[in-house]
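Reply to dn_fold:

You asked what the input looked like. This is it:
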Amino acid sequence: MIDAPATERPRVTWVFGSTLDGRVAAPDGSSRWISSKAARADAHRLRAIHDAVLVGSGAARTDDPHLGLRHGVAGRPPLRVVLDARASIVGPSSRVVDDAAPTLVVIGPDAPDPALPARVAIARIPIDDRGRLDLRAVLDELAARGVRSVLVEGGPTIAAAFLGAGLVDDVVGYVRAAVLGAGRPLLDVAGVTTIGDLRPLRLVAADVVGNDVRIRASVG
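and this is what came back:
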């Protein structure tokens, strides 16, 4: 059981897999498999102890993720949450809407009805001043649904959005002993110009998992 922070919003963990040079995908967009098999299994065990697993529209579009439990990991699958502001990505054939686990698709207030199976829950959330779903409102919605812990598995954009909003409590990174030399960076953060923009985290642990190093850190 993961305790929620004192604010009563769900506790948020950002998890990622990257190469040693900080790449999460190759220049052509391919990313399977950056993490080793042992690290992928470990990441699914991490999923299993969270109430919800969340991705943004970029990951939903590129990867069509399933977000259930695999690699022999037992337990109750977390609520699968997809942020799809325009209701333009998740459809009836998306892997995330099957009956293997509950699913919540979060859309904007003016988005069209996505016409998903009845088993899929829909939440309409306000848009912030950047034209994106209001992440604090998303967490409030999840809290109202009994969610106390959220694993953010989306790509560089959604990770940067949660970090920028001060909504990440913990970080778990699987860093593969490999390099790409080019491709998608770990984070999409604008406005970083100098070493003074460095954001230190508190290192909790570092362990070898397969051919990866699992790094656990806390924010703040």
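The domain at 11-218 is CATH 3.40.430.10 (Dihydrofolate Reductase, subunit A).
Hope that clears it up.
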